[in-house]
Amino acid sequence: MKTTQIFGLHPVIEAIEAGRTIDKIFVQKGLSGALFATLAKLMESHQLSHSYVPVEKLNRLTRGNHQGVVALLSPVEFAPLEELVLSTIESGKTPLFLILDHLSDVRNVGAIIRTAECTGVSGIILPKQGSAAVGEDMVKTSAGAIFNMPLCKVDNLIDAIYYLQGSGIKVIGATEKAPTLLYEESLTEPLAIVMGAEDIGISKGVLKVLDARAKLPIQGETSSLNVSVACGAFLYEVVRQRMIS
């Protein structure tokens, strides 16, 4: 696997200018100076995911002389949304996409990728800002499935949903607040399933543009399932319906 971390102002700036696939940049709070100004402009112009953090966070990420900046390189390349959708439709297979609405837990996303690969998902769509970093931990949790699963990072999930809908793909949200059970929905048509963040679920803006909402039956005292478990249940219901259709 390629090196997934670089640090220092010059190396990070050079990596961006060289077109390396950077998943996230951590910048020390209060950092200033000409080099930082150059970095800030590059982060903005390339729309790179970044966070301003205490120096202690950077010290935990690397033992090297980070100069206030640590970048995580993605071990995989990201596919453009339009190309991913078009190639899926042209393949002749019924599209099945996953949209992960700001999931922040690396292991949850890794587990979802593993299940997605096993269930024939066409690709996974994530927002550039606010998603779990695509790094070694995610690769390990996915059991390597991440290398066989197209990933797409987009600036705006709502715009991405509109694009999918315009391409004839139904978008359904997995939420315990849904009026109907998953098993009452038809999942045999071209489909994208939205899974919400671990703490707040699907964001309000995304909820407003969905074609449908569905939930799983909960029979215990716990109000909701872990998102990766719920995602697995949704995906295998898609598999079941499509096998018998």
TrEMBL record:
Keyword Transferase among UniProt keywords: yes
Domain RNA 2-O ribose methyltransferase substrate binding per the UniProt entry, residue ranges: 5-79
Record has Methyltransferase as a keyword: yes
UniProt keywords, alphabetically: Methyltransferase, Transferase
SUPFAM superfamilies listed in its UniProt record: alpha/beta knot (SSF75217), L30e-like (SSF55315)
Coiled coil residues, start to end: none
Gene3D superfamilies: 3.30.1330.30, 3.40.1280.10
InterPro entries linked to this entry: Alpha/beta_knot_MTases (IPR029028), Ribosomal_eL30-like_sf (IPR029064), rRNA_MeTrfase_TrmH (IPR004441), SpoU_MeTrfase (IPR001537), SpoU_subst-bd (IPR013123), tRNA_m1G_MTases_N (IPR029026)
One Pfam family recorded for the sequence: SpoU_sub_bind
NCBIfam families: rRNA_methyl_3
Protein name per the record: 23S rRNA (Guanosine(2251)-2'-O)-methyltransferase RlmB
Gene: rlmB
